[in-house]
Amino acid sequence: MKPDTRSFYEQAVQRAIDHIARSLDEALDLQTLASDACLSPFHFHRIFRGMVGETPMEFIRRLRMERAAFRLADRNHAAVTEIAFDAGYETHEAFTRAFRTCYSTPPSAFAGRTHPRIELATPSGIHFMPDGTVPRFIPRDSGGKTMNVEIKEMPDLRVAAVRHTGPYNQIPVAFEQLGRIAGSAGLLTPGTAMLAIYHDDPETTAQDELRSEAGIVVPDAAPLPKELVEEHIPAGKYACTVHVGPYEQLGDAWTRFMGEWLPASGFRVGSGASFEIYKNTPMTTPKDKLVTELYISIA
Known about the structure:
Layout: H1 3-21, H2 30-36, H3 41-52, H4 56-73, H5 80-86, H6 92-103, H7 107-110, E1 149-154, E2 157-165, H8 171-184, E3 194-198, E4 211-217, E5 229-233, E6 236-244, H9 250-265, E7 275-278, E8 291-297
Antiparallel strand pairs: 1-6, 2-4, 2-5, 3-4, 3-7, 6-8, 7-8
Helix pairs in contact: 1-9, 2-3, 3-9, 4-5, 5-6
C-alpha cells in the first residue's frame, strides 16, 4: 500500500466532513464537495459512504438531528417549529416523526429530560459539537480492505447498448429490449459479455433522470442495428472484484470496494468507466448464485 494514497482519500473525506459539519444550515452541494476532492460526484459518493458509513445526505441529516436534540435539551431552547425548520423539515409533523424514530420519544417529551442522550449511532465517530469543533473521523472497516481484487489490463471494449433513463432498479427493462434487438441481429452468442454502465449519483440526481446503459460487448466489425447505440470502454488498467449473490447487494459491494479497498490499495480512480459484467442471468440462476464482476478504472 502507498501511504500517501490512503492519506489522499482520508484528507479528501475529512475536508468534506469539516465543510458539512460547519455548514449545517446550507444546502448540501455534492458537486462542489466532489470537485474539491478531485472526484466525480458518482465516485465521491461511493468513497464517502464507504469510508464514513453514511452517505453525505445521511451524514448531514444526522448532524442536524443531533443539533435539534441539543437545542431541545437546552432550557432556553427555541420553539419546536423553528428547530424543525433548522433541521431541514418543512413541517412540525414531519420533524416529530423523524425525531421519534431517532430518539424513541417526541420532541416535546425529550425537551423535559435531564441529561438526555444526544449522540446517535455512527461508525465515523463524528457528532454535532456546539462549539463547532470537528474531530477526525474514523474510517469504516468492515473487511473491504481485504477483498479479493484482481488488477487487469483491459482492451478497448466496443459495447452495443440500450440507453436507460430512470431508476437504476428498472434497468432490466432495457436489458429485455437489448436481448430482443441483439438476438434478432445475431449478436448474442455463447460467451457474449453482458454489462451495465451507470453514470449518475442517485443521491444528487432525480430518479427519473438517472442515466445508464444496458449493453453487450461486440466485435469491432459487427454491424449494429439502428436501435442500439455504440459505446466504448477505454483500454487500461482496471481493478476487478467478484460479487456472488443478489443484485440488491451490489450497492454494498461497491461501497466496500471503493470506500475501503480502494483507499488502502495504493491506487486512485482512473479516467475510465466503472461498470458491471454479469456472468449469468436471473432468468436461469437462483439469486444467491448470481455472479457479477465489478470494475473500477484505476490510475
